[in-house]
Amino acid sequence: MKFVINLHINPAVLDALTDEEKAAIGQGHGAFLEGLKASGELILTQALVDPSQAAVVRVRGGQPVVTDGPFLEAKEYVGGFYLVDVEDKARALELAAQIPDAAIDGLGVEVRQVMFSDGQLEA
C-alpha cells in the first residue's frame, strides 16, 4: 500500500527553534531516510520551496491567470513529503511517528493513502 506522509511546516515555529534543534531535525530526517532506504519502503521524498516562491494557476474564461505567492493565507504549509510503499496503514503511522517534526508542537505530520497512481486505482 502506498502512503504519502506530508510534512506541515509553520515558519514561526521553525524560526523559534535554536540552531541545535534545527540541526537535530535535519539529522533526524537523514537517519529516517536511511532507514526507509534500507527497508525498501521508500519510493520518493521531496522538499518544497517556501510558498512565497509558489505560483497559483487558475483558468478563467479559457485563459490561464497566474498569481505569485501562496494560495491561502495560512500559518502552515506543506513543506515536503515522503512517498512510501508499506504493508498497511499501521506501518505508515509507525513511520510517521519516527519523523522529528512529529515531536515538535506546531508542526504536523499527515498520513494519507494513495488512491490513484499511474492511471490505476490503488488497492
UniProtKB/TrEMBL annotation:
Query: Can you give the residue ranges of the YCII-related domain?
Result: 1-114
The record's section on Pfam families has: YCII (PF03795)
| InterPro entries recorded | Dimeric_a/b-barrel, YCII
Membrane-spanning ranges: none
The residues forming a coiled coil are: none
Q: Per its UniProt record, what PANTHER family does this chain match?
A: BLL7171 PROTEIN, BLL7171 PROTEIN-RELATED
Protein family membership? Belongs to the YciI family.
Q: What is this protein's record name?
A: YciI family protein
Q: Which organism is it from?
A: Catenulispora subtropica
